[in-house]
Amino acid sequence: MIKKWTYFLGLVLLITLISSGFKAFEPEKLEGFHVANDEVINYLVPTKEETEKVYYNFPYTGKSYVGFKQAIAIKESLGLYRLVNPFGYMGKYQFGKSTLRTLGVYNTSEFLKNPALQEKAFKALLAKNKWELRKEINRYEGRVINGVKITESGLLAAAHLGGAGSVKSYLRSNGQNGFTDGFGTSLRSYIKKFGGYDTSNIVANANAKVKLD
């Protein structure tokens, strides 16, 4: 009986001795990776409508010539080659039939189906308008008219909207004689919106035509 009592007493003393060498474990909290007791976690998930949205990621082309013509195209037609508006203007850059004839394009059905032809027509019209406005570009570039700085690209864009004659009238009247198209778009808005692009690669040409393949 004494042996058993001695055995159990020794066992208790051993366990007490061993356990006294260890500290109670406390979980370590890493800053930024734990939630306090009084904090509430809120989860935000997109709605069905938000997940169905499509976002177009157009390449950034800056103020280059490519950026210029793409900006014009988005404004004119959202870049759609086959678009014909209620006033009969057609294609990616919204050409009228009379303008196309001056560039040597007479088949409008073929024009609408041919993206390469539309790109050539746009560049040819820029060359023609640059020649028509060569004196105005030299005289007015850098000036501020009607609160807008005049640049070559802005004038070429305005000429695309309302013709070189309208641009000349606008400049000579110090912005008082302003053309507005059927949708209410003004020359001033185009001069401002499309100002500062690099159109130096466009060579002025009074007789610019589209070269048909």
Task: Describe the model.
The protein is mainly alpha-helical. The protein has ten helices and two strands; from the N terminus they run H-H-H-H-H-H-H-E-E-H-H-H. It has helices spanning 2-19, 48-51, 65-77, 97-102, 108-113, 115-132, 134-140, 152-162, 164-172, 187-193; strands at residues 144-145, 148-149. Strand 1 (144-145) and strand 2 form a beta hairpin. The longest helix is centred in the N-terminal third of the chain and has 18 residues, at 2-19. The model is unreliable at 22-58 (pLDDT under 50).
- Spatial order of the strands in the main sheet? 1-2
State the shape: elongated
Bin the helical content.
40-55%
Give the N-terminus to C-terminus distance in angstroms.
Answer: 118 Å
Largest sheet: 2 strands, antiparallel
Give the strand tally. 2
The proportion of strand residues reads under 5%
Q: Provide mean pLDDT, rounded.
A: 81
SSE order in H/E notation?
A: HHHHHHHEEHHH
* Poorly predicted sequence stretches spanning 5 or more consecutive residues: 22-58
Q: Please, what is the oligomeric state? A: single chain
Question: Rg, please?
Answer: 37 Å
- Total helical elements: 10
Structural class, please? Answer: mainly alpha
